[in-house]
Amino acid sequence: MTVKDIARLAGVSPSTVSRVLNSPDNSFASEKVRNRIWDVVHETGYVPNPTAKSLRKSGGGPKAESNKNLACILAKTRRPQDNPFFAEIARAAEQQALQMGYAIPYYFTLFDASNQSVIQRVLSTDIGGVFALGRFDSSSTLDFLSSRYETIVYSGITGTDNNWDQVICNGYEIARTAMRHLLDYGHTRIGYVGETRHEIRFTGYKDALTDAGLPFSPDLIGRCTMNGEEGYAAANALISHASRLPTAIFCANDITAISVLRLLRKKGLRVPADISLMGADDIPMSSVVTPSLSTVSVPKGDMGRLAIRVLIDRINKMHRLPMKIFLPYKLIIRESTRKIT
């Protein structure tokens, strides 16, 4: 399997395939085209030719090749492309793996954790290491993965209490940064839309209120799984039942915030004139919606690339102690927030 073969199967040029597989810049191809190329990569088990040659030189047996295959375990989505935050991390991880002579042909999701056929597939798949993406709420899942796989790296915004290598952008501090922006703009009645159970962004929201000497108001909380449909419904409940409208809403991620923006428009509320809106993670859509979304940018590509470098370093026994690497974040102020005058 070559780049030309992938191009033929995906219906694009070889140069497009090469750029999708190797360049961090995604602006030259649509999301649909990128997903089609990566689907072909997964279906065919493509690895770069230099890797195939090195495997043949090393004996070329099944074990040698399987050790070049990695698996991605998704905690919060069925497929990477279902969530732009995880998609960007996963694509960067796949690019990094290919550049280092590895591939990620296997994707498993915790949504299928009760499916015995899926569990059997996980158990029977011979891989060199696991890239765990997104927060794992169940300790039994953590124990299962740790007992099955010797080499695991985790990436997300919430750390785990185990001995895995971890590449993290601190969700607690992200939330506090978002809240500090709203508080600095004079907002004192701030709502929250997002997950609340075992969610450090919710903890950051509450602690920011406490530090500012402000009360926690349960009627300003929209509890939901952080996706568009549930975010819309949670915001609707918040707006409908609050004794007094908030002057600002902090959403735990941008997908939720964009859905809240849609709900506020439907309710006839202007952003930011009536309600300021703040997100977190800075997915590409957040800069092109109207008004553009203030958010806290997470280095998603760096998270994926660094996680794979750490994983392959671990596979090759280049380090032994568990690593926990924290990456920086950045406040992005756009049009959806305004100062209280």
Walk me through the structure.
- Strands 2-1-3-4-5-11 form a six-stranded parallel β-sheet. A four-stranded parallel β-sheet has the order 7-6-8-9, with helices on both faces.
- With 341 residues, it is α/β, with parallel strands linked by helices.
- Helix 1 packs across helix 2, helix 1 crosses helix 3 and helix 6 packs across helix 13.
Rg, Å, rounded? 22 Å
Model regions low in confidence, pLDDT < 50 over at least 5 residues: 51-66
Helical residue percent? 40-55%
Number of helices: 13
What profile does the largest beta sheet have?
6 strands, parallel
Query: Please, what is the average pLDDT?
Result: 87
Shape: globular
Number of strands: 12
Sheet with the most strands: spatial strand order: 2-1-3-4-5-11
| Proportion of residues in extended strands | 5-15%
How far from one another are the termini? 62 Å
Structural class, from secondary structure content?
alpha/beta
Order of helices and strands: HHHHHEHEHEHEEHEHEHEHEEHEE
